[in-house]
Amino acid sequence: MADELAFVPVSHEPVPVGDRPTPEPSAPGATLSDPERWVDEHGDYLFKYALIRLRDATKAEDMVQETFVAALKGGKNFQGRSAEKSWLVGILKHKILDHYRKASRETSFTDVEFFKDGESEPFEESGMFQNCWNHDRGPSEWTEPGAALDAEEFWKVFENCTQKLPRNVARVFTLRELDDVASDAICEQLSISPNNLWVMLHRARAALRRCLELNWFSRTTTPQH
Amino acid sequence: MFNRIKTWTVWCIKEATGSCAEVTRLLSQGMDQPLPWHVRCKIRVHFLICDLCQRYGRQIRFLREAMRKYPERLENSSDGNSPAVASPRALSPETKERLKQKLREQTN
Question: Which has the least CB within 10 A, A164, B81, B100, B105?
Fold first, then answer.
């Protein structure tokens, strides 16, 4: 059952009475105004949340709509306004995960290309030090990575680099690195083997690292060509 | 002569601890599950001869840090559609109206 997912803190239970704000009188039309308020108060947040994880604005909008509709149907008793946002996020998380699950068996063409290319880290191809870094082309020292996190431009590069990851790879990478979902939970939910997961995560990290190095960290030390 | 001895020593350690291709794979795996102690030892010893793998490990940990800060970053782009990012950051007023309309239909 969906509610048993260990890493999705969703609760359809009403908030304990003590935690509730003063209950509003149930005037006629109160049920109408609430969902509309959700759109104004939480719509943008939920949209951003979905967009990071789905990388598709239309799909993200659909998910937000589905979330509101599900909330409306399932949350008739929900009155704790303070926990409203996390309650809605919980529903959205479920929706996204369901979406991942449905799509996880498709492997797109770009995925295949990505994995073929995966071993192309600059390792030596032969000799005594086969499969070791080529010293001229291995990872270069990144100057002040911490400062990059404050630079607006860095995030543009970062976003472009994550966009290049194939869909399935990006999904497991987001679940693992952004949502901090444990590996075995990801494997279970998406029905993939641990090995498959580690390969995908390794490839994702390698590709993202290379992309940031090329497009951000190297341009501070060498002129752009 | 000295260089030759050095190369052979490095080669021996590499043979014992695994190639960089293998060590980078393990470094990544180590971020997703605890590695057995002997594997962690192997990586430590490999680091003695290989700065680049050590650097690689630092850099992929930085990716995690960046990824975790990413939503916060989006949150702070208060103007909704920051010029630094390509895709929309907020629902358009039309979409919001459409969502409200949809919810109204549902309640009736």
Answer: B105
